[in-house]
């Protein structure tokens, strides 16, 4: 009898966990994963998938710090934000052997500086941030950051910038040839002055509609992610994505296992699912970015490999990650950003 | 009339005396939990030390208010001067909200008057028509507004086809676009209270004034407006206050080039800055301003009533 009772209790407990196991809560960027892929995962593992979305790495961090931790299982922060979230103790560690498909990660992405050894993350997509120019408005050379910060008269007043401190200031540092997160006061003052002067030529700051303003013709130049530029082109805008000689920003979004994930098992299942070439290729075909896995080529839309947005010319500058500044420098960066938008 | 109603009222309160506490509980819980508690959190946070990348450290600090009022240069170690940045942002927001309120009043008052003077059976239909666009999400309405005002949009195309202008007006990404967006977003909040006031207005008073040889303008100014003033004041507050804190219209229509109060505060929580105490302090300063405005208007209306 006693044994029966404890068995019943064990079943009761199992039932409780079984219910929890049937769920996965994703915190993801907007418009960044095809619904069919989520449906496939949901059916294959009999897991109910719930997804909330955010529109910037900083919004993700703020939501998690304001009490979101413990609600979500996985999130998809960019490179520098993985490092920040790791420093803030918001990530769980994936033990060796917990991900069966970890070997599919391409060698160059297996040990990134923002998450050594991939302790908490797997690659999702990577690409670049630069800018696109409408060729109906401007026929000249666009392989220079002058287009954004010191534009020719035809483009002045028709420029949309991303409403994102990290991307704008990193691009500005490349333009001036100074290191990111420089603590040098003369360089920071010069950066502030340069941006103040450049702003006079900018029409707007907008990230969400970075693609739409190019397609509609509201902007002739837009700071933009490579995949968004490819989509704008596919939607009929005569835009060319630039790879400036001064350099451009490279980013990688990563699926991370969050601390106190309520459905840790399913989170790992999902990560393993995204480490299968066929599945991550579906994301790439949808979002028009590159995956960080080996063996995906067979599943990719052939136009993806040849699209100009993914193939920097030989004379392009180097692609650099956005760096994580220390507190003192970040506070000056915040001040510069406020000055820019006051 | 008042005497007749009183006994009934007291009987009722006898009936419910026992249960009164419990019946009021939902109201108190709602007020306490949803209004006072968040305000207290904000007040406390505004006096705490900021934590790098969002969050607070539980140490008392006036840093947030200091940052609001004093400028210590780009690197934070110059001699303090008066900080005009945030005052400027507040002033810009007040200006935008003020223009939007005046626009709403100019359009809203005649609209409300028109509706209130329709035959009884038509009024509900007109009110219904005014509210229809507001069943759609604010974001979508704001984006639609942008499509209307764009250089290649119907407004510019129409005016150019009519030969009124030869080049697009270039309204998008200007202050005017923000003001128009705010005006459009909150217009019903102006129309409905004024409509309610005008509907209760006894038009015999206007006739009496006219019989006493008051010109139309005088009837409007000396008879109608004083009678419906509470509705106008309510409408102005309902348009001005949400306009003051709005960030959708400035972001989408104004190009987010200049912070308004709402976007400044949002940036403290969602941006790189991650300065929660400063965001809380700016919110408290905004709240104080709005409260002063409300107290002022309440006093005015008391005077008007007496």
From TrEMBL, chain A:
SUPFAM superfamilies: Periplasmic binding protein-like II (SSF53850). Gene3D superfamilies: Periplasmic binding protein-like II. Spermidine binds at residues 31, 80. Its main location: periplasm. GO terms for biological process: polyamine transport. InterPro entries: SBP, Sperm_putr-bd. Coiled coil: none annotated. Residues 1-20 form the signal peptide. It is found in: Periplasm. Keywords: Periplasm, Signal, Transport. GO terms for cellular component: periplasmic space. GO terms for molecular function: polyamine binding. Belongs to the bacterial solute-binding protein PotD/PotF family. Required for the activity of the bacterial periplasmic transport system of putrescine. This is Putrescine-binding periplasmic protein. It comes from Aliishimia ponticola.
UniProtKB/TrEMBL annotation, chain B:
The chain crosses the membrane at residues 21-48, 94-116, 123-140, 176-198, 276-296. Belongs to the binding-protein-dependent transport system permease family. CysTW subfamily. The keyword Zinc-finger does not apply. GO terms for biological process: transmembrane transport. It is found in: Cell membrane. Keywords: Cell membrane, Membrane, Transmembrane, Transmembrane helix, Transport. Signal peptide: none annotated. SUPFAM superfamilies: MetI-like (SSF161098). The keyword Nucleus does not apply. PROSITE patterns: ABC_TM1. It is a multi-pass membrane protein. Pfam families: BPD_transp_1. Residues 90-297 form the ABC transmembrane type-1 domain. GO terms for cellular component: plasma membrane. This is ABC transporter permease.
